[in-house]
Amino acid sequence: MKFSPKCPKIRYNTIMSAKNTTEQKKHPAGKLIVLLYYKFVQIPDPSYEVFLHKKVCESIGLKGRILIAEEGINGTVCGTRRQVEEYKRFCNGHSLFGGIVFKESRAIEQPFPKMIIKERPEIVTLRHKVDLKNTGKYVKPEELHDMLERGEDVMMIDMRNNYEYKVGRFENAIQPDTDKFYELPEKVKEMKDLKDKKIVTYCTGGIRCEKASALLVEEGFADVGQLEGGIVKYLEKYPDGHFIGKNFVFDARMTTNGDTESGKQVLAKCEHCGKPCDQYRDCTKPDCHQLFIGCEDCVKKYDGLCPVAVKDLEKMAR
């Protein structure tokens, strides 16, 4: 789809004049801010918004990943405080993107190699049309924490993927056994025994729960809530609360909150030897690059290869 020249243009002269060539180099380690955000809003011309965002983010000097579709925007960007505030001002001055709730975390080093902005059919891929006006009710982090502190009978459902759940999750939470979010519609059909339970869904920043909770409501689940702001917002308030292990993120950091007492709990195991470990690695085999959990000893022993790659090489050597 090509953008229409009639689409209303957004003023971004201030942003376009930002001096950013050495911005990040002047800041000490740990001063980079990562913004996680989304907004479901009807976008009449996604191609134009991609074009505009590329111009704006390039001028500011941000790096990250932004998806834009007719249904809205979903992004994670990183920069200095000055840069991310410039970007927030741009969004707040935009007729479509004003009012976005930005979730912040810090990075020691830039976790993105470049800025990627793409137009997609969906900003989070479910491949199943749901009514986003009929989602689960929002549950604030404080409300959820109180529920869990009181031992209330609530079923926590992790709407992330298996590999995210493996290294960190809410206590006693279940996960629908999905490797990809679009597998959820089929998996929900296997959860009929939970239809009368009080349910709170959660994910990293909230976007997947918008669609996931709407899907549960559609399937007749009686009492559905969704954690507002996701794990990120909960950890801001309760870094040592009822979320245990590490929070998986889709950038070079791999996980966050490892410096908290809750985050120091190791829930996973090395996929080679079975020792407690929650460090994700990128398989060094050029045609693989599978994420796997591997301890330092096994990474050295197998030259950074995942278990599948090791087995493949063993077969070839026979």
Keywords, separated by commas or semicolons:
318 residues; alpha/beta; Alpha-Beta Plaits; Oxidized Rhodanese, domain 1; 3 domains; 5-stranded mixed sheet; 15 strands; 28% helix; globular; disordered N terminus
The largest beta-sheet arranges its strands as: 4-1-3-2-5
Q: Give the termini separation.
A: 52 Å
Mean pLDDT over the residues: 91
CATH architecture of the largest domain: 3-Layer(aba) Sandwich
Helical percentage: 25-40%
State the secondary-structure class: alpha/beta
Number of helices: 10
Number of separate structural domains: 3
Tell me the name of the CATH homologous superfamily of the largest domain: Rhodanese-like domain
Along the chain, the helix and strand elements come as HEHEEHEEEHEHEHEHEHEEEEEHH
CATH fold-level topology of the largest domain: Oxidized Rhodanese, domain 1
Number of strands: 15
The Rg value, from CA coordinates, equals 21 Å
Largest sheet, in brief, is: 5 strands, mixed
Low-confidence stretches: 1-27
Per DSSP, what share of the residues sits in E-state strands of 2 or more residues? 15-25%
- The dominant shape is globular
CATH class of the largest domain: Alpha Beta
Structure description:
The chain has 318 residues and is α/β, with parallel strands linked by helices. It has three domains: 13-119, Alpha-Beta Plaits; 137-248, Oxidized Rhodanese, domain 1; 268-317, no CATH class. 28% of the residues lie in helices and 21% in strands. It is built from ten helices and 15 strands. Strands 4-1-3-2-5 form a five-stranded mixed β-sheet. Strand 14 (280-282) and strand 15 (291-293) form a beta hairpin. The longest helix has 15 residues, at 46-60. It is globular. It starts with 12 loop residues before the first helix and ends with a helix. The model is unreliable at 1-27 (pLDDT under 50).
